[in-house]
């Protein structure tokens, strides 16, 4: 499916193809749409603000602002609703067999996370998840990273009478940041009567459909009316493994980039967001920074600027993180301190940066 918006001049503009319409790909496409002939290839018709998705599970109406049609911000570009399945030095191949030529390519496929094609179907998915939470008396969450912790926080605050259990295979919650933040988060969950089981996994295949009993790796049983799997998703680079970029992938499938965010060995190909091998915490605000650096460099290259003037991306060395805990509280790890409660909650938890993100995409907040 293709949508073309805006008009083009008589002079041929450089063709920029962006693969992936997540938080990084959408921003780079939006930033370049009046500087080149931009095509966005994405398997869904909308951008989903990822850090708002968990709030939408307990409050589906929240998704009315966090799900954005690509056509709403990409007003002067081409949108192809399809998956990319391979790439050559000059073209991207889509799942329908279509070849899309490019002068410059930006890869922003992040993690593999199959979502409904249409915005309306994604909204229905949120409504179904909300109904599942509403009907359940007991809920199991598997995974104690930021996704599992934030979902548990949303449910614990909105549904304090439900029995909530969080099982995590690691030695502490939120292992991507420091132990102080982990310990404060664990104490917060205890204050909300959430049962946290660490250093355990759950065999979801062994669930008894009749009793809804889950067995952990330590032999403990957890009774729950429903469960949510919040573990890491695979990197979205499978489609590149038999392509001209196969040698640009590291041992875990991430794309190796240089300081300008160009794919090593391919001067007209950029990679941004979670799919890159940049050694930093994979967070949305950093993916947005990637997008802005890549857009700046592409604007320079498209007007024939000198490569030595390209901007460099400076990776984040300090682990700054802000994890929401329901609607009013959060845990924040800053360079010199760790905070939990209403003060960090004022920064993120009420709106989850949705208004700020919409404004960045040129939309009403």
From TrEMBL:
<comment type="function">
    <text>Putative FAD-dependent oxidoreductase.</text>
</comment>
<dbReference type="GO" id="GO:0050660">
    <property type="term" value="F:flavin adenine dinucleotide binding"/>
</dbReference>
<dbReference type="GO" id="GO:0004174">
    <property type="term" value="F:electron-transferring-flavoprotein dehydrogenase activity"/>
</dbReference>
<dbReference type="Pfam" id="PF07992">
    <property type="entry name" value="Pyr_redox_2"/>
</dbReference>
<dbReference type="GO" id="GO:0005737">
    <property type="term" value="C:cytoplasm"/>
</dbReference>
<feature type="domain" description="FAD/NAD(P)-binding">
    <location>
        <begin position="15"/>
        <end position="290"/>
    </location>
</feature>
<dbReference type="InterPro" id="IPR036188">
    <property type="entry name" value="FAD/NAD-bd_sf"/>
</dbReference>
<protein>
    <recommendedName>
        <fullName>FAD/NAD(P)-binding domain-containing protein</fullName>
    </recommendedName>
</protein>
<dbReference type="InterPro" id="IPR023753">
    <property type="entry name" value="FAD/NAD-binding_dom"/>
</dbReference>
């Amino acid at each position: 499916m293709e949508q073309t918006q805006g008009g083009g001049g008589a002079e041929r503009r450089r063709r920029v193809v962006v693969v992936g319409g997540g938080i990084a790909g959408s921003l780079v496409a939006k930033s370049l749409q009046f500087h080149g002939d931009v095509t966005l290839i994405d398997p869904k018709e909308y951008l989903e603000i990822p850090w708002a998705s968990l709030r939408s599970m307990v409050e589906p109406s929240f998704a009315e602002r966090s799900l954005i049609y690509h056509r709403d911000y990409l007003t002067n570009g081409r949108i192809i609703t399809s998956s990319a399945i391979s790439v050559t030095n000059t073209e991207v191949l889509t799942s329908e067999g279509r070849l899309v030529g490019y002068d410059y390519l930006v890869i922003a496929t992040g993690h593999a996370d199959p979502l409904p094609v249409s915005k309306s179907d994604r909204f229905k998915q949120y409504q179904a998840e909300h109904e599942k939470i509403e009907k359940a008396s007991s809920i199991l969450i598997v995974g104690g990273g930021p996704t599992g912790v934030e979902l548990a926080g949303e449910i614990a605050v909105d549904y304090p009478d439900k029995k909530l259990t969080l099982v995590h295979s690691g030695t502490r919650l939120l292992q991507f940041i420091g132990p102080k933040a982990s310990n404060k988060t664990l104490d917060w969950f205890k204050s909300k009567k959430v049962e946290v089981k660490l250093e355990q996994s759950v065999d979801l295949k062994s669930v008894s459909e009749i009793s809804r009993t889950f067995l952990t790796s330590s032999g403990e049983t957890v009774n729950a009316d429903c469960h949510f799997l919040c573990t890491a998703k695979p990197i979205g680079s499978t489609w590149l493994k038999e392509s001209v970029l196969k040698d640009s992938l590291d041992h875990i499938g991430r794309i190796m980039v240089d300081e300008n965010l160009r794919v090593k060995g391919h001067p007209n190909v950029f990679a941004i967001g979670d799919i890159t091998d940049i050694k930093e915490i994979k967070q949305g605000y950093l993916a947005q920074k990637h997008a802005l650096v890549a857009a700046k460099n592409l604007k320079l290259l498209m007007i024939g600027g000198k490569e030595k003037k390209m901007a460099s991306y400076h990776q984040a060395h300090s682990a700054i993180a802000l994890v929401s805990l329901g609607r009013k509280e959060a845990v924040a790890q800053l360079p010199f301190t760790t905070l939990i409660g209403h003060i960090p909650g004022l920064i993120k938890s009420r709106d989850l940066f949705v208004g700020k993100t919409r404004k960045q995409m040129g939309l009403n907040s």
